[in-house]
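Provenance

Sequences were taken from public entries as deposited. Structures were produced by running a predictor on each sequence independently, with no templates supplied. The record for ARF interacting protein 1 from Cercocebus atys is shown for reference.
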Amino acid sequence: MAQESPKNSAAEIPVTSNGEVDDSREHGFNRDLKHSLPSGLGLSETQITSHGFDNTKEGVIEAGAFQGSPAPPLPSVMSPSRVAASRLAQQGSDLIVPAGGQRTQTKSGPVILADEIKNPAMEKLELVRKWSLNTYKCTRQIISEKLGRGSRTVDLELEAQIDILRDNKKKYENILKLAQTLSTQLFQMVHTQRQLGDAFADLSLKSLELHEEFGYNADTQKLLAKNGETLLGAINFFIASVNTLVNKTIEDTLMTVKQYESARIEYDAYRTDLEELNLGPRDTNTLPKIEQSQHLFQAHKEKYDKMRNDVSVKLKFLEENKVKVLHNQLVLFHNAIAAYFAGNQKQLEQTLKQFHIKLKTPGVDAPSWLEEQ
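Predicted structure for ARF interacting protein 1:
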């Protein structure tokens, strides 16, 4: 009798009502496999291959070498049923093998990433809160000082220098105002002298009997107008230099003084706050507040010390610059006034050359482009 084909022999294998192979050895293997799997073996280390029903290696699981905890060696090829392979695949999808070789159970669902970026609105709200608290403390300190209840930090030497600077600024502003008035009046006088000289010159040509007299007066008024224009140039240069000193150099120093005074108020406000906390009880609730207040006080103390040093340095440089500038400008003003009223035209022009002053007579039209060429 001829041998039957492998297909005929496979057709004689009994199956259950749902199409599963009724093999008691395979069911026993499923139980043994669950107990014999090493603790570190995951789905990434197991390869499941499926073939057709006519292949004898149905549902083959190939297990590779594992470096985890020691376990009894497994055969390189095992033949569980398709149901066992599907159950192992479902169980392996919920297993994660970390670097330590321990299995952790994970739950399926959406992954939520922590938002590490701060909300800009919350940052602005925090800045407003800090600003409001700082403003409240400083306002309370200012009111306490004006009412005579609060104490303030005073640097006697520095405060005296600041008071002198402010007083000098007022005096320099008064000199500047008077010099501007003098310049305006001198300009009007020079303009009148020029017009008067032109009138005398015109009458000298039209009045033959008074030709010489009108001519002398015309020359005198034109000379006075010319000297007045020279003096006006010196005074305007004096005004420009003093204006730069008062409204730029001194004003810049006073801005630093204002920042120093603001830093001093903040320093005293947080110093008073720390002193009040130190006078109170010390317990678990107040100790964190005292530590935070100490930190803020130290930060404002460093800012106050820095601003005090900045003011001291600026006052020193300002004093040196002020002496140098005012010395030159006062010498210029004196020599120009003295030469003008002495009628020494040569000395007056020499004074302007000494200070490199170029005359720009007010009221005179600018030269044309042909004259400039």
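DSSP finds nine helices and five strands in the chain.
The mean pLDDT is 74.
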